[in-house]
Amino acid sequence: MSMSVDDCTTIRDGFPRPFPNTPTNVIEQFKLNGRVAVVTGAAEGIGGAVSEAYAEAGAHVALFYNSNDAAIAKAESLASTHGIKTNAYKVDVSNAEAVQSAIAQVVKDFGRIDIFVANAGMSISKPILEQTLDEYKKQLSVNVDGVVYCAKYAGEVFKRQGTGNLIITASISGHIVNVPVDQPVYNGTKAFVTQFGKSLAREWREFARVNIVSPGFFDTKMGAGPSALNEAYRMAVLGRQGHVKEIKGLFLYLASDASTYTTGSDILIDGGYVLT
Ligand SMILES: NC(=O)c1ccc[n+]([C@@H]2O[C@H](COP(=O)([O-])OP(=O)(O)OC[C@H]3O[C@@H](n4cnc5c(N)ncnc54)[C@H](OP(=O)(O)O)[C@@H]3O)[C@@H](O)[C@H]2O)c1
After folding, report:
1. Which one of 95, 140, 147, 242 is separated from 20 by 20 to 30 angstroms, measured CA to CA?
2. 240: Cα separation from own chain's centroid
């Protein structure tokens, strides 16, 4: 039953909570000096750009990769260019034990985790009537299980520390039905992680923020394939895919003290695709 006006005037212990002790200068708010960030799917594409953004802002970065060992050279180059600490970890996010032990190793190597970006994903874009059950399960294992495992084990670290910040890469495919290629399973996985992330924002309210980034088409290996490319240009009101440099600012905002009042948000960055 809803509370009455009288019930609502009762002052609750501990409220309002204090404002955060963060800089008022906005450029200072965006700095990540000394913070420790983990990015999955970090070798290239969106995760590669996010790793760069965090290194440029002064964070130490743990780059998780699965098959693309360009992450090793990328970690070395970010460390030498920006004078920060980095390391690359080979982790299949669909393997819970691998995720748990890699996160424990990051804590050993870096001392803590301030920011965790659950970005790894994959798609097998087919109608369900043409998709095998193995293909369905594969997408769930990376896009859903992988995000859940990362959140669970990073969340344990955040709770222990009393602070943390989880950012999940979902997709506009969790909001709308992409055209012209039918890909119901991928779309469903992204809807799951969007609602999962919002729910964690409440569950972890005492110690961590959780936000979701929902990109439209970006020019990466997972961007629009040949059969979707022209339609991606037509649907986005900006008439093109995004360049990964255009997503760095949003991930930096969410990781930084510029966003201390932002939690449970799902931010679209899609060149206006969902408007049409
Ligand atoms: N590009 C787009 O248009 C777009 C739009 C909306 C959402 N997204 C989402 O953005 C995220 C990044 O994609 P992207 O566009 O940057 O494409 P990408 O460069 O192909 O990145 C996908 C990443 O996921 C990693 N990955 C796949 N399976 C994995 C596994 N089992 N364990 C660990 N990592 C695994 C890959 O790692 P390895 O290469 O090391 O194997 C790769 O780095 C994905 O979640 C994707 O769904 C992309």
Report:
1. 147
2. 23
Sequence-distant (6+) residues with CB within 8 A of 276 are 235, 237
Q: Compute the average pLDDT of residues 150-169.
A: 99
Instruction: Confirm whether pTM is higher than 0.90.
Output: yes
- Domain 24-269 CATH superfamily: NAD(P)-binding Rossmann-like Domain (3.40.50.720)
Closest CA to 40 of 98, 82, 79, 83: 98
Domain ranges of the chain: 24-269
Strand-strand pairing, 208-215 and 266-269: parallel
- The number of beta carbons lying within 10 Å of the beta carbon of residue 163 is 14
Ligand 1 pocket at CB < 6 A = 40-41, 43-47, 65-68, 91-94, 119-122, 142, 146, 169, 171, 215, 217-218, 220-223
Query: 80-96, pLDDT tens digit by residue?
Result: 999 999 999 999 999 99
Per-residue pLDDT tens over the stretch 66-77? 999 999 999 999
pLDDT at 38: 99
Task: Give the separation between CA 184 and CA 129, rounded to whole angstroms.
Answer: 10
Ligand 1 centroid to 18 CA: how many Å? 38
